Amino acid sequence: MTETEFLDKLEQHKGILLKVSRIYCDHPEDRKDLFQEIICQLWRSLKTFKHKSTFSTWMYRVAINTALVFHKNDKKRLDNHTLSDHDARAKAPYDDKYERQLKQFYGAVKYLNEVEKALILLYIEGLSGEDIAATLGISANNVRVKTNRTKTKLQNIIEAQNNEL
Asked: If I label 77, which of 51, 70, 98, 118 is the partner at 20 to 30 A Cα–Cα?
Protein backbone atom coordinates (compact mmCIF):
# COMPACT_ATOMS: atom_id res chain seq x y z
CA MET A 1 0.00 0.00 0.00
CA THR A 2 1.39 3.39 -0.99
CA GLU A 3 1.50 6.41 1.29
CA THR A 4 -1.30 8.04 -0.70
CA GLU A 5 -3.49 4.94 -0.43
CA PHE A 6 -2.78 4.80 3.31
CA LEU A 7 -3.74 8.47 3.73
CA ASP A 8 -6.94 7.91 1.73
CA LYS A 9 -7.89 4.93 3.91
CA LEU A 10 -7.02 6.93 7.02
CA GLU A 11 -9.28 9.79 5.93
CA GLN A 12 -12.05 7.35 5.00
CA HIS A 13 -11.97 5.71 8.46
CA LYS A 14 -10.97 8.72 10.58
CA GLY A 15 -14.13 8.27 12.65
CA ILE A 16 -12.69 5.06 14.09
CA LEU A 17 -9.73 6.97 15.50
CA LEU A 18 -11.95 9.69 16.92
CA LYS A 19 -14.22 7.17 18.65
CA VAL A 20 -11.37 5.13 20.10
CA SER A 21 -9.72 8.31 21.36
CA ARG A 22 -12.94 9.47 22.99
CA ILE A 23 -13.64 6.11 24.59
CA TYR A 24 -10.19 5.90 26.18
CA CYS A 25 -9.46 9.55 27.02
CA ASP A 26 -11.52 12.06 28.96
CA HIS A 27 -9.53 15.19 28.24
CA PRO A 28 -9.36 16.78 24.76
CA GLU A 29 -5.58 17.15 24.95
CA ASP A 30 -5.18 13.46 25.74
CA ARG A 31 -7.56 12.57 22.89
CA LYS A 32 -5.40 14.53 20.45
CA ASP A 33 -2.27 12.81 21.74
CA LEU A 34 -3.84 9.37 21.45
CA PHE A 35 -5.23 10.18 17.99
CA GLN A 36 -1.72 11.09 16.80
CA GLU A 37 -0.19 8.05 18.48
CA ILE A 38 -2.67 5.76 16.74
CA ILE A 39 -1.85 7.29 13.36
CA CYS A 40 1.87 6.78 13.98
CA GLN A 41 1.30 3.19 15.07
CA LEU A 42 -0.90 2.49 12.05
CA TRP A 43 1.85 3.74 9.75
CA ARG A 44 4.51 1.69 11.58
CA SER A 45 2.28 -1.40 11.53
CA LEU A 46 1.15 -1.08 7.92
CA LYS A 47 3.50 -3.85 6.82
CA THR A 48 1.63 -6.24 9.15
CA PHE A 49 -1.68 -5.67 7.34
CA LYS A 50 -2.15 -8.94 5.43
CA HIS A 51 -5.55 -8.17 3.83
CA LYS A 52 -7.08 -11.16 5.67
CA SER A 53 -9.61 -8.76 7.19
CA THR A 54 -10.95 -5.42 6.08
CA PHE A 55 -8.73 -2.39 6.54
CA SER A 56 -11.18 -0.97 9.09
CA THR A 57 -11.09 -4.18 11.19
CA TRP A 58 -7.28 -4.10 11.19
CA MET A 59 -7.41 -0.38 11.99
CA TYR A 60 -9.65 -1.06 15.01
CA ARG A 61 -7.23 -3.71 16.24
CA VAL A 62 -4.22 -1.39 16.01
CA ALA A 63 -6.14 1.58 17.44
CA ILE A 64 -7.45 -0.35 20.45
CA ASN A 65 -4.08 -1.92 21.20
CA THR A 66 -2.44 1.50 20.95
CA ALA A 67 -5.09 2.97 23.25
CA LEU A 68 -4.52 0.23 25.80
CA VAL A 69 -0.78 0.90 25.86
CA PHE A 70 -1.39 4.65 25.91
CA HIS A 71 -3.85 4.24 28.79
CA LYS A 72 -1.40 2.06 30.72
CA ASN A 73 1.38 4.64 30.24
CA ASP A 74 -1.03 7.46 31.10
CA LYS A 75 -1.73 5.90 34.50
CA LYS A 76 1.96 6.27 35.29
CA ARG A 77 1.84 10.03 34.66
CA LEU A 78 0.35 12.50 37.08
CA ASP A 79 -2.93 14.08 36.07
CA ASN A 80 -1.92 17.50 34.76
CA HIS A 81 -5.45 18.74 34.15
CA THR A 82 -6.75 21.34 36.53
CA LEU A 83 -10.10 21.21 38.23
CA SER A 84 -11.02 24.55 36.69
CA ASP A 85 -10.60 23.05 33.19
CA HIS A 86 -13.04 20.31 34.12
CA ASP A 87 -15.52 22.77 35.66
CA ALA A 88 -15.45 24.97 32.55
CA ARG A 89 -16.36 22.02 30.33
CA ALA A 90 -19.06 20.84 32.73
CA LYS A 91 -20.78 24.26 32.63
CA ALA A 92 -21.05 24.40 28.84
CA PRO A 93 -24.41 25.97 27.88
CA TYR A 94 -25.13 23.62 24.96
CA ASP A 95 -28.04 21.42 26.09
CA ASP A 96 -29.18 19.28 23.19
CA LYS A 97 -30.80 15.93 24.12
CA TYR A 98 -28.51 13.88 21.86
CA GLU A 99 -25.41 15.56 23.25
CA ARG A 100 -26.58 14.88 26.82
CA GLN A 101 -27.18 11.23 26.02
CA LEU A 102 -23.80 10.96 24.32
CA LYS A 103 -22.11 12.60 27.28
CA GLN A 104 -23.92 10.25 29.66
CA PHE A 105 -22.86 7.26 27.55
CA TYR A 106 -19.19 8.29 27.52
CA GLY A 107 -19.41 9.03 31.23
CA ALA A 108 -20.66 5.51 31.86
CA VAL A 109 -18.05 3.97 29.57
CA LYS A 110 -15.34 5.39 31.84
CA TYR A 111 -16.33 2.77 34.41
CA LEU A 112 -15.73 -0.15 32.05
CA ASN A 113 -12.42 -1.97 31.89
CA GLU A 114 -10.28 -1.69 28.77
CA VAL A 115 -11.61 -4.87 27.13
CA GLU A 116 -15.22 -3.87 27.81
CA LYS A 117 -14.55 -0.45 26.28
CA ALA A 118 -13.15 -2.03 23.14
CA LEU A 119 -16.01 -4.50 22.96
CA ILE A 120 -18.75 -1.89 23.31
CA LEU A 121 -17.05 0.40 20.79
CA LEU A 122 -16.89 -2.35 18.18
CA TYR A 123 -20.45 -3.40 18.98
CA ILE A 124 -21.93 0.07 18.53
CA GLU A 125 -19.95 0.40 15.32
CA GLY A 126 -21.96 -2.55 14.01
CA LEU A 127 -19.11 -5.02 13.57
CA SER A 128 -20.14 -8.65 13.41
CA GLY A 129 -19.37 -11.01 16.27
CA GLU A 130 -16.74 -12.67 14.11
CA ASP A 131 -15.06 -9.34 13.31
CA ILE A 132 -15.10 -8.34 16.97
CA ALA A 133 -13.65 -11.73 17.89
CA ALA A 134 -10.88 -11.33 15.31
CA THR A 135 -10.12 -7.80 16.46
CA LEU A 136 -9.97 -8.67 20.16
CA GLY A 137 -8.49 -12.15 19.79
CA ILE A 138 -11.33 -13.96 21.57
CA SER A 139 -13.93 -16.47 20.40
CA ALA A 140 -17.19 -15.35 18.80
CA ASN A 141 -19.10 -17.12 21.59
CA ASN A 142 -17.09 -15.18 24.17
CA VAL A 143 -17.95 -11.97 22.29
CA ARG A 144 -21.67 -12.70 22.66
CA VAL A 145 -21.37 -13.39 26.38
CA LYS A 146 -19.12 -10.39 27.08
CA THR A 147 -21.30 -8.10 24.94
CA ASN A 148 -24.44 -8.99 26.89
CA ARG A 149 -22.66 -8.57 30.22
CA THR A 150 -21.14 -5.25 29.15
CA LYS A 151 -24.48 -3.89 27.91
CA THR A 152 -26.09 -4.84 31.22
CA LYS A 153 -23.23 -3.25 33.13
CA LEU A 154 -23.57 -0.02 31.11
CA GLN A 155 -27.33 0.06 31.72
CA ASN A 156 -26.75 -0.35 35.45
CA ILE A 157 -24.16 2.44 35.49
CA ILE A 158 -26.46 4.80 33.59
CA GLU A 159 -29.40 3.95 35.86
CA ALA A 160 -27.24 4.61 38.91
CA GLN A 161 -26.14 7.95 37.44
CA ASN A 162 -29.78 8.88 36.74
CA ASN A 163 -30.77 7.97 40.29
CA GLU A 164 -28.08 10.30 41.64
CA LEU A 165 -29.60 13.26 39.80
From this structure: 118
